[in-house]
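User: Some background: our group keeps a shared notebook of sequences we're curious about, and every so often someone picks one and asks for a predicted structure to add to the entry. Today it's my turn. The entry only has the sequence so far, pasted here. Could you supply the structure so I can complete it?
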Amino acid sequence: MTRPYAGVLPLAATALALLASACGGADASAEATIAIHFSHFVPEAIEVPAGVPVTITLRNDDPIDHEWIVGAPDVHERHSTGTEPYHDQVPTEVTVPALESRTTTLTFDHPGEYLYICHLPGHEAYGMVGRLHVVEG
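Assistant: Of course. Here's the predicted structure to add to the notebook entry:
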């Protein structure tokens, strides 16, 4: 059975968390959680403010490993060949082991649209793609 509003609640919670953190003044930061469930990112889209550190928790609910790569098309082109088996040094490139969570903090300097993709073999084709929208902070 399909729940028509299943994706709305996580997106609304993310938006509220970002709004609440944006009201914090000069030390403002933002937080978001992206779950990985049945080889899909939930939510499939998030919005973050430009110029503000964003802490993203990646929670893998699946019994297999995944990765979260966010960036411009050239970043995804480089990762599409799958030549890097593990990511733990670059905040925009994170390996998330099965049934575990990882946290990364990053700041986007300018508004724009970025995809986040799992480039492990077959995962992108299966639908492991999301969109990160950076808005004026």
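Suggested note for the entry: The CA atoms of residues 87 and 125 lie 20 Å apart. The mean pLDDT is 84.
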